[in-house]
Amino acid sequence: xxxxxxxEFEALQKQLSELRxxxxxxxxxxxxxxxxEQATKALNCSRATLHRLTKQQKLIPRYxxxxxxxxxxxxxxxxxxxxxxxGAANKRILAATHATI
Length: 101
Hints:
The protein is mainly alpha-helical. The chain has a single domain (about 5-95), classed as Multidrug-efflux Transporter Regulator, Chain: A, Domain 2 (Orthogonal Bundle). Helix content is about 60%, strand content about 10%. α2 packs antiparallel against α5 and α4 (about 70-80) packs across α5 (about 85-95). The chain is elongated. The mean pLDDT is about 90.
């Protein structure tokens, strides 16, 4: 059995605490839609790339008053499909919405 060192254990506890905060924030605020600006920031891409992803139907927006909105779950799933960890995907989305936790 592989037992972590004290430092590794402390790092894991810190990571778990951060993930709990992110989950509480996301569940408490019911963040479900991102604007173009927020989506491009979360995806770390340009508007042109976001438009291309939309045309390729890799991301499908919902329109509200002719303004495209991208579902958070869909953006998160796309980020994770690029081999980014779920925790890092959540951090990107939180940073894109200027949320502080």
